[in-house]
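Dear colleagues,

For the upcoming journal club I promised to circulate an example of a predicted protein-ligand complex. I picked one with 3-methyl-2-oxobutanoic acid because it came up in last month's discussion. The inputs are reproduced below in full, followed by the predicted structure.
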Amino acid sequence: MKAQRVTIHTLRQMKERGEKIAVLTAYDATFARLFDEAGADVLLVGDSLGMVFQGHDTTLPVTRDEMAYHCRAVVRGVRRAHVVGDMPFMTYQASVEQGLVNAGRLIKEGGCHSVKLEGGAHYVPLIERLVAAGIPVMGHIGLTPQSFHQLGGFKVQGRDAGGRERLLADALALEAAGAYAIVLEAIPADIAREISAALAIPTIGIGAGVECDGQVLVSYDMLGMDESFKPRFVRRFATLGATIKEAVGQYVSEVRGSTFPSDAESFAVTEKQAAQVPLYSTGAAKK
Ligand code: KIV
C-alpha cells in the first residue's frame, strides 16, 4: 500500500493532537530510505552536510547546486517523509528576489517539499513572498550556524538580557509571516517551552529541551558516526562509527588473508543455471 505523504498540514495536525514530530537530517538516498522506513516524519537536507558530509568546519561553503543535488538523492529515497531543503548561506540574505529565485530552484531542481531558512523577523518579507509563491517555509532561530562568525562560534543563545523576548518576538513574527514550523536551536528549555505554547505552528527543537513539538538531530551525530564528537544535546542511539571501522577492519584482514571471497561467493563456468539469472536486482527494478 502506498504510504500517505507527510505534509505541512499533517505536521500542524500532529501538534494539535499532541503527537511529537520526529525529524532527522539526511543527505543521500540510502540513509533517507532507512530513516523513512523507520518512521521519521520529516527529513531535513540540512546544510550541516557541509560539515558531516563535505568535511568543512562550518556550513558556510555549501552551494545551492550542492544542496539541490543532495535533495534529489533524498527525495528518491523516501515514500512517506516530508523533505525539507535547507537554503545555503548567501542564497537568500542579499534580497527577497534572490531568496525567491533560489528557493524556487531548490523546489524545482531539488524536488524537496519545502525550504528552511535561518533568521528572525528580518526575514518576514521573504517568507511572505515565498508563501505567496506556494513555497512552504520552515524557520530557524536561536543558534543559527550560518551566523557562526557573527555569533563568535556555536553557542547557546537567548541567555543574555532581552534574549527571551527577542526569541519569542522572532517566533511570533515568523508564524505571522506564514512559516509552517520553526526550528529552535540551542536555547534554554524554558524559553523553548514558552515559544512552543505561544505558537499554533510546530516547534522542532535541537538542544532546546523536551517541550518542543518535535525534535531534530543531525543523523550522523545520533548514529555515532564520529566517535570524537558528542555535544551535550546529542544522544547517540547507535555507535555506527565503531561498527563500520570493525567491519572494514575485518574485510581488510580477510582480503589480505585470501579468505574473501569464498567459493560460494565466486562463479564457475559449469554453473549454467546461475549464469541465466541476474547478478543482483536493484531497488529501482523492484519499484
Ligand atoms: O543543517 C542542519 O542540519 C540544521 C539542523 C541542525 C536543524 O539546520
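Two points we might discuss: The two ends are 12 Å apart (CA to CA). The mean pLDDT is 95.

See you all on Thursday,
B. R.
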